[in-house]
């Protein structure tokens, strides 16, 4: 099948711009053909074990088989088929024994098995990235375990939390990302060497079993000409979920960096510039970059889902898509996890600003505590709600604290003495279970 020229260009740009060396190496054309060559060689050796081809020819293939990337590209201009171009190039170095190569196989036996190797290796890197990210999040969560800040719902002040709890939530979310990737990995670590429609008509299943085992793969229980694409779609959906979690926390930090809030801030290095027009600017560009790249990964997951429906035993509508989405999504998520880890590790935190923002509403966040105590003391909930709301609205509209307005509401003081109201209006009440939460997460 022809290589997708636009895909190669796009991949080259992405590798240059975003990929870390270890991930980049997996998706190069050189590495792809190296895996192809190993698959073809292993298949010949398995055939020799069965006595289907001469042992000496298998040894010759192992000893002499090689390829030259530029030569394959030149042959492909004529053949318009990358696998045939590859086989012709290898044959020029092997000699007569090459007649046994690709015996009983179809192109997808090589392509899909190679994709399984690459995807498994890429997912190993991403699992490592996730573990390293969680280590950094855990460190920062413990650092700010009891640092009070306001929690927000609808963007409006709700009740107090700690910044450590916010980061503990992030730690927990990426724990689920780790679990998902670990769970999907066995379902993508699947190869096939079963021929044109998956029936092993011209190739003993022993060959498939040996090749896959040597490569660290599981043979597909049943395949058509290809490994079924629901496996790959699930993998891309997991990557999209990881990207969306990255986006979620990038968005969180971006909001917390707004000038009016300024509870956290991305690290701003010496000599860094925030705006071509305004010298004072310190923008959350890392978070914005992460949010933007997450859109690409999510869109690639949609393309992977579209690839599930192929005609009969196979068409190649998925092929050009996969040449783009596999290297690009793995590349991007690798880059994004690394970038987010650095962002969290160097995140500047402003506890004084958190305290200032917490005090803006003059204690309004204690309203539910008083409401619940009133109902506990026997007041009907509607009556209790309205009494506390009257005090809260006076605080919203005036200059007195909630505590000051609570202690003059007769319906409230009839159930809760003023000195007890003062004790209830404390941060300690909100943070009683923080230690317990950290223990549950293994962060104690």
Give a brief outline of the structure.
With 444 residues, the chain is mostly helical. 63% of the residues lie in helices and 5% in strands.
**What coarse outline follows from CA principal-axis ratios?**
elongated
Radius of gyration: 30 Å
SSE string: HHHHHHHEEHEHEHEHHEHHHHHHH
User: How would a textbook summarize the main sheet?
Assistant: 2 strands, antiparallel
Q: Record the strand order, biggest sheet.
A: 1-2
Q: What distance lies between the first and last C-alpha atoms, to the nearest angstrom?
A: 55 Å
Helix share, percent: 55-70%
User: What is the second-level CATH architecture of the largest domain?
Assistant: Up-down Bundle
Report the CATH C-level class of the largest domain. Answer: Mainly Alpha
Question: Based on DSSP secondary structure assignment, what is the total number of beta strands?
Answer: 6
Features:
mainly alpha; 2 domains; two-stranded antiparallel sheet; Fumarase C, Chain A, domain 2
Describe this structure in words.
The protein has 444 residues and is mainly α. The protein has 2 domains: 334 residues, Fumarase C, Chain A, domain 2 (Up-down Bundle), CATH 1.20.200; 61 residues, Fumarase/aspartase (C-terminal domain) (Ribonucleotide Reductase Protein R1, domain 1, Orthogonal Bundle). The protein contains 19 helices and 6 strands. Helix 9 links the parallel strand 3 and strand 4. Helix 3 crosses helix 7. The relative contact order is 0.11.
């Amino acid at each position: 099948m022809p290589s997708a020229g636009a895909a190669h260009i796009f991949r080259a740009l992405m590798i240059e711009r975003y990929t870390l060396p270890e991930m980049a190496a997996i998706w190069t054309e050189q590495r792809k053909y190296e895996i192809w060559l190993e698959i073809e060689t292993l298949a010949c050796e398995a055939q020799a074990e069965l006595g289907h081809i001469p042992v000496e020819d298998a040894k010759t293939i192992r000893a002499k088989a090689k390829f030259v990337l530029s030569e394959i590209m030149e042959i492909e201009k004529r053949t318009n088929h990358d696998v045939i171009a590859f086989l012709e190039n290898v044959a020029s170095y092997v000699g007569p024994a090459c007649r046994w190569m690709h015996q009983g196989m179809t192109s997808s036996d090589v392509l899909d098995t190679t994709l399984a190797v690459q995807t498994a290796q890429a997912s190993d890197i991403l699992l490592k990235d996730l573990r390293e990210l969680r280590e950094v999040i855990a460190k920062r969560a413990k650092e700010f375990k009891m640092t009070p800040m306001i929690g927000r719902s609808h963007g409006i002040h709700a009740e107090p939390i700690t910044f450590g709890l916010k980061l503990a939530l992030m730690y927990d979310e990426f724990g689920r990302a780790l679990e998902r990737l670990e769970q999907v990995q066995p379902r993508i670590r699947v190869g096939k060497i079963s021929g044109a429609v998956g029936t092993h008509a011209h190739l003993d299943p022993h060959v498939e079993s040996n090749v896959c085992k040597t490569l660290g793969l599981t043979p597909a229980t049943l395949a058509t000409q290809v490994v079924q694409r629901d496996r790959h779609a699930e993998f891309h959906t997991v990557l999209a979920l990881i990207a969306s979690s990255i986006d979620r926390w990038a968005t969180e930090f971006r909001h917390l960096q707004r000038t009016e809030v300024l509870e956290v801030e991305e690290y701003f290095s010496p000599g860094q510039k925030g705006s071509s027009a305004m010298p004072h600017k310190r923008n959350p560009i890392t978070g914005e970059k992460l949010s933007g790249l997450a859109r690409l990964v999510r869109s690639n997951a949609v393309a992977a889902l579209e690839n599930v429906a192929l005609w009969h035993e196979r068409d190649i509508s998925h092929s050009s898509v996969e040449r783009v989405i596999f290297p690009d999504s793995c590349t991007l998520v690798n880059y994004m996890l690394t970038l987010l880890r650095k962002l969290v590790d160097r995140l500047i935190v402003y506890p004084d600003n958190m305290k200032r923002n917490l005090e803006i509403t003059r204690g309004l966040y204690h309203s539910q505590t008083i409401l619940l105590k009133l109902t506990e003391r026997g007041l009907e909930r509607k009556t209790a709600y309205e009494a506390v709301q009257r005090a809260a609205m006076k605080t919203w509209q005036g200059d007195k604290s909630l505590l000051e307005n609570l202690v003059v509401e007769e319906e409230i003081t009839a159930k809760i003495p003023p000195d007890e109201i003062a004790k209830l209006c404390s941060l300690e009440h909100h943070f009683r279970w923080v230690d317990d939460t950290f223990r549950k997460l293994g962060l104690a």
